[in-house]
Amino acid sequence: MTATPTTQPTAPDNASQLSVIPLTGAALERYIASEPVNPAGLPTSYEHGGRLTAEGTKVDPIIVEIVEGTLASVEMEVETAISRTSRSPMIRDAHDFRAGIHDRQLRKLTGRSYSALVHPIVRDFPLETMSEGDVFFHNDVYESEGGIGHLPDLCVTVPVFHEGEVVAFVQAFGHHDDIGGACPGSMPSGATSVHEEGLSVPPIKLWDKGVPNRAALRIMTRNSRMPDSLAADLDAECSACLMGARRLSELFARYGRDTVEAAFDAILDNTTETYRREILSKIPDGQYVWEDYAEHDGVDDPKLHTQRITLTKTSTGGPGNGPRLIVDFTGTAPQAKGPINHCGDYVGGNFLKKWLAPILRNLADSPERMAELDVNEGIVPLIEMRFPEKGTLLTPVYPAPTNARTFVILRLLGVLAGVVAKAVDGKMPADQETIRYTGVYGKDRDGNDYLMREVLGGGSGGRYYADGEDTIHVVPDSRNLPTEFTESRFPFIVERLGLAVDSGGAGRYRGGLGYEKHIRMLKDANFMSIADRSILACWGVKGGKAGRPFEVTIDLGGPDERVVDALADAEPVKAGQVIRIRTTGGGGWGDPLDRPYDEVERDLRWGKVSFAGARSDYGVIASGSRDEPVIDVAASDALRSELRASRGDQPFFDRGPGYGRLASGVEAADVDWL
């Protein structure tokens, strides 16, 4: 059976303005032959996205279940192998990496977690040139076809062979400690060019038929401030993906290529049909507009960097002339001078479709059903993405910096949730925590350089049926670093790690709480932070209030106490000083004055809400102790009546007081009203 050819991507109108790297050999010959050119300026001559078997091919549903389970098992085994054999805290302990399995048409088959794309590898290395034991590598943001967002994300890809032909791919990418650049950690907050952010590697063959390219590895480790960790992590990822490729080869050997590929098509067809029937059907036909913002870019003064989505739902035009979604990013702000840009406009937004689609699962009939829905390539045909011209936050022009692109791609999750909320009467969660990197670096007790970075989570948004979750991590399976590990390895003491009281946005359903962490330095060091939501907050919806923003205080309680900027590369911290980190709380859902008294009492007993917060946020007057709070029902009823009478019309979304600071005193955007 042969794959159905697909239409080749074409160059954008302004492709001649983009930076083009010199081409040699076969790549140059293809270019001279006037083959299509991708936005990175490189030849794009490969099939992708088509079916492996003819439409209507039948396969035993039990075989489909076995194949699907095997794929999930192999993906998990690859990730487990990486976590057990890697060395850096970011990979081994924080688990900031992902694995994925793709077919030979480059379609993502697994849906437990997101992953990068195989497209740039097959673009530069045709399938017929690949051999068993090959491992491909890249981290170049502008040549990754949108699959890599910033340079610290290093990606390895291994082809899977059956009877001498490539039949699938195993891929892993992770956030590594340091790959060079202007500051430790390779995420300079004030970068104005990608060249300041570290070593950029286009797709290369890192292993050739099982033999590592020692020269390339030496170049990469030589550019890193943490060469031993980088080398060990790359070994772990390459070995794990090679192991995963062997596992998949066994699957093909057991059932045969025709059967396995028919099962691949069936898996993706099932996803398409499930989302069409259970998710898209919940969105009324029509057009809906909303926007949210990043607050700063590390170079210019804080301002509103707009990210806008116009969502159009139609009942026709999708697969089988069924429903489809059009996601139009027109109105998104110009690319920033600083590193908050994200290259999203590649391969029709293929990566962004799979990145954003998990938000749609909130429309499932129940939380239990939502948890069952994977996001794989099957959602791609249901969504059309339309991008603005080159030169915006989502369509940056090389060499715009990108290391803090999380301010954009994570914000887009909330923008999509918000625009869908307008369509479904708010039955989407309020805004969730956004990833941030904090850390310290300096000399350890033995005088050696060290770098400790952490991806602390925050609160998720309240939902129409439940409170948000506390201290969750938006990166799947990621976690904070264990105190026992960090104290034994780095020169500081963790004096507190708990919930940040009152950080969750007030609502009928409260937003989840963020972390509060206190670190006492034992030696002079430097603090670093790549974070937003320090001015703007996680928004509340349908009467719910915004959560509390991110905040870092240095020398807590001391003579030099100060709140530092959320984007910082080298904030000095003296031995003995305490760093307090408070992460974001999720937004609230629904009117907080409707929250039942017994739930407020529970929050008081659990220490999630203070007595002052209960009064100001929920109109609840309480006395007694935290262990035994007593609510004055009559006084609370009177206070709630007074608060209701004193407030005027309220927008559908609450952004918190920080929005007015950046919007010249305006409390809400035009799009915040229904």
Automatic annotation (TrEMBL):
Q: Taking every annotated instance into account, which residue ranges of this chain make up the domain Hydantoinase B/oxoprolinase?
A: 60-592
Which GO molecular function entries does the Swiss-Prot or TrEMBL record give?
Answer: 5-oxoprolinase (ATP-hydrolyzing) activity
* UniProt-listed GO biological process terms: glutathione metabolic process
Instruction: Check the record and name the Pfam families matching this protein.
Output: Hydantoinase_B
Q: Would you tell me the Gene Ontology cellular component terms?
A: cytosol
The protein's name is: Hydantoinase
**What's the source species for this entry?**
Intrasporangium chromatireducens Q5-1
Task: Tell me the organism's taxonomic lineage.
Answer: Bacteria, Bacillati, Actinomycetota, Actinomycetes, Micrococcales
